[in-house]
Amino acid sequence: MNTDLQDYSHKRFNILTGEWVLVSPHRAKRPWQGQKETISNEKRHSYDPNCYLCAGNTRINGEVNPNYDDVFVFTNDFAALQKDSKTFEIEDGLFKAESEKGICKVICFSPNHSKSLADMSVFAIEKVVQTWQKEYQLLGANEHINYVQIFENKGAVMGCSNPHPHGQIWSQSTLPNEVQKKDSHQLEYYKNKKTSLLGDYLIQELQKQERIVYENEDFLVLTPYWAVWPFETMIAPKQHLKSISELSEKQANTFADAISKITKAYDKLFECSFPYSSGIHQAPTNNESNKHWHWHMSFYPPLLRSATVKKFMVGYEMFGTPQRDITAEQACERLRAFL
Length: 339
Ligand code: H2U
Description:
- The chain is an alpha+beta fold.
- The protein has a single domain, classed as HIT family, subunit A.
- Helix content is about 25%, strand content about 20%.
- It is built from seven helices and 14 strands.
- The chain has helices spanning about 5, 120-140, 175-195, 195-210, 250-270, 315-320, 330-335; strands spanning about 10-15, 20-25, 70-75, 90, 95-100, 100-110, 145-155, 165-170, 210-215, 220, 235, 275-280, 295-300, 325.
- The strands form three sheets. A nine-stranded antiparallel sheet has the order 3-6-8-7-12-13-11-10-9, with helices on both faces.
- It is globular.
- The chain starts with a helix and ends with a helix.
- The mean pLDDT is about 95.
- The structure holds 5,6-dihydrouridine-5'-monophosphate (H2U).
- 5,6-dihydrouridine-5'-monophosphate binds near residues 60, 76, 77, 161 and 162.
């Protein structure tokens, strides 16, 4: 390993977004007298009569959830994007706006209110993966849907409004900012080399063996070289696949295994139900070949030193560049201890 990276301030390049992250390994020991989060380790009941996501309960709009057995999907009652939004474009001098259509869904991972993905069996997570695959295809088939964003906000510290295990799917006409960046960098690389940018990166990671947290037959879980969040990880298929719809049945299972392994390790790291935002970036559903896309899932957890000390993305990071103290290699080593 290049020890300069562990001792001196430096910046690292994110090949997918074209952005830099500032790394300050010498700073990890600074004292903390700032805000401490309250992380609840209180055991929840498997059913909460007041939860709008529990089976058989009534949602805010009056609709009753079915008595679902595993995964349940419904259209978000407070959707951020409207399916029938009027089509318009405004170009008024320097004022520019465009209409945006979309469909937003909520996906309940389990009827059991007390669980999170980390507590669920690989078999149960596989059902979530299969539902993601189905929704990606279903939503993507709509004429006005060109991108499907699957994500989960876990934990009150991430702004999650309900502890019931659930995620969301927002689908829309155009590519969101983060996806746009990854689309253009992967395309440029693919045009030049005719290989997958992320695939070639994974080969290099396998050779180095410095940032791989977990590996199974089909997937790598790693702390990316350019990780921004202290314990950020990525799950990526070794095979060059554009989207989760290309996963075989076996790969849906090994993907579920990778999710299970990393979420369990997270919970063990600070002995709490580890908060994070996770999301899948994959090929747009715009009827183009999108051969340059190599799908992957990222976990962005906010916790820094313990269950109660979180990282704030503020100050220099808002005005300059994201910055981290603990290196990706150190984070990998700490997570690997729980696998
Ligand atoms: P978060 O907890 O991740 O914020 O998401 C919960 C989502 O559930 C939120 O987007 C939706 C909210 O709009 N919701 C409904 O669609 N119906 C309800 O009855 C309550 C919440």
